[in-house]
């Protein structure tokens, strides 16, 4: 039976291939090992997309805090609101009952939809752009617990020193621009506009890391900021050409002096967190191309490459 088509359209096999999610099996040898808690030592826990817990036993900071993860059809055709049951379950699975801060890297729904609810539930201050503030106001978050992110100005929380640095969203931003008034859910996914986009530089003692969620870069944005480890957003990187990837690696890894790279923002966030993570389906991104590139660059440059495991406590620093 011929499953293809002629010049009138794509082959059915090609369409089916685009609907499949790549397997993680070729990359399981890169899984980062678990690390026990040690007094005063920073640990990280990856919780999908660019939600990352930084915790040294005294201070706990979360980036984004996205747990609702509405399905593809809801995102495309429906209206979104935070799913309080999924938020509570996600926090519980991660063992999070208190946070000192939630830092939002930009204001798309897969980063900022749940952030005010997470901050409210954990007693945290919420840090982000004016657009994130309007998301928070629309959800009734206390404005006196919101802290505007000011690029280039370090601030200290416990033993962590945080600096928001300017960033650029990855190519193909479907909701650019600011959110200029309080956003009251439920609303369309595209109402969660990007706002200002940040990288988060973190110093803990003598060690430094960078959380960079969007697979793009701004010339000069990271000048003077070194990092031992980069949590590197790779969403949409697989759809870019080789020159783009090379420049991205140079600005985020080579120029920061990083000796360890941990890919983030690669998982299919239309699946809930109580199911195993999988990469985006092929029609949305090319995870295999991204990982092939990262593996090649890491090997040639002597950089450790590790793939995060959802919910696993890990040592963020290169050994």
Could you characterize the architecture of this molecule?
The protein is of the alpha/beta class. The protein has a single domain, classed as Ribonuclease Z/Hydroxyacylglutathione hydrolase-like (Metallo-beta-lactamase, Chain A, 4-Layer Sandwich). Helices cover 23% and strands 18% of the residues. It has 8 helices and 14 strands. It has helices at 12-19, 72-77, 84-93, 109-112, 115-122, 130-138, 242-254, 287-301, and strands at 43-46, 52-55, 60-63, 101-103, 125-128, 146-148, 155-157, 160-166, 198-204, 207-212, 229-233, 260-264, 304-305, 313-314. The strands form 2 sheets. It has a 7-stranded mixed β-sheet, with helices on one face. The chain has a 7-stranded mixed β-sheet with strand order 7-8-9-10-11-12-13, with helices on one face. The protein is globular and about 50 Å long. The relative contact order is 0.17.
Topology:
Layout: H1 12-19, E1 43-46, E2 52-55, E3 60-63, H2 72-77, H3 84-93, E4 101-103, H4 109-112, H5 115-122, E5 125-128, H6 130-138, E6 146-148, E7 155-157, E8 160-166, E9 198-204, E10 207-212, E11 229-233, H7 242-254, E12 260-264, H8 287-301, E13 304-305, E14 313-314
Parallel strand pairs: 3-4, 4-5, 5-6, 10-11, 11-12, 12-13
Antiparallel strand pairs: 1-2, 1-14, 2-3, 7-8, 8-9, 9-10
Query: What is the gyration radius calculated from CA atoms?
Result: 19 Å
Distance between the termini: 55 Å
Named at the architecture level, the CATH assignment is 4-Layer Sandwich
Major β-sheet annotation: 7 strands, mixed
* CATH class bucket: Alpha Beta
- Low-pLDDT segments: 1-7, 12-16
Portion in beta strands: 15-25%
Number-wise, the strands total: 14
- What spatial order of strands do you see in the largest sheet? 6-5-4-3-2-1-14
CATH topology: Metallo-beta-lactamase, Chain A
Global geometry: globular
Whole-number mean pLDDT: 94
Proportion in helices: 10-25%
Count the domains. 1
């Amino acid at each position: 039976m011929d499953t293809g088509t002629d010049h009138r359209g794509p082959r059915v096999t090609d369409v089916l291939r685009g609907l499949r999610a790549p397997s993680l099996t070729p990359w399981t040898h890169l899984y980062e090992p678990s690390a026990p808690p040690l007094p005063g030592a920073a640990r990280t826990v990856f919780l999908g997309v660019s939600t990352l817990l930084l915790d040294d036993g005294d201070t706990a900071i979360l980036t984004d805090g996205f747990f609702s993860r509405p399905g593809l059809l809801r995102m495309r055709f429906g209206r979104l609101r935070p799913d309080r049951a999924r938020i509570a379950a996600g926090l519980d699975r991660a063992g999070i009952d208190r946070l000192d801060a939630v830092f939002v890297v930009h204001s798309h729904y897969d980063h900022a939809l749940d952030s005010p609810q997470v901050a409210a539930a954990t007693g945290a201050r919420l840090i982000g752009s004016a657009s994130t503030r309007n998301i928070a106001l629309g959800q009734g978050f206390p404005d006196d617990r919101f802290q505007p992110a000011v690029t280039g100005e370090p601030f200290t929380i416990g033993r962590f020193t945080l600096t928001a640095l300017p960033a650029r969203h990855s190519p193909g931003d479907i909701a650019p621009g600011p959110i200029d008034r309080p956003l009251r859910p439920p609303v369309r996914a595209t109402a969660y506009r990007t706002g200002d986009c940040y990288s988060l530089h973190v110093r803990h003692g003598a060690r430094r890391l960078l959380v960079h969620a969007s697979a793009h870069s701004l010339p000069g944005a990271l000048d003077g900021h070194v990092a031992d480890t980069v949590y590197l957003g790779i969403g949409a990187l697989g759809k870019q050409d080789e020159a783009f990837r090379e420049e991205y690696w140079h600005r985020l890894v080579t120029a920061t002096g990083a000796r360890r790279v941990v890919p983030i923002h690669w998982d299919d966030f239309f699946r809930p967190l109580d199911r195993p993570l999988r990469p985006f389906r092929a029609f949305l991104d090319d995870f295999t191309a991204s990982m092939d590139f990262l593996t090649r660059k890491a090997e040639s440059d002597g950089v450790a490459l590790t793939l995060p495991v959802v919910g696993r406590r890990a040592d963020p620093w290169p050994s």
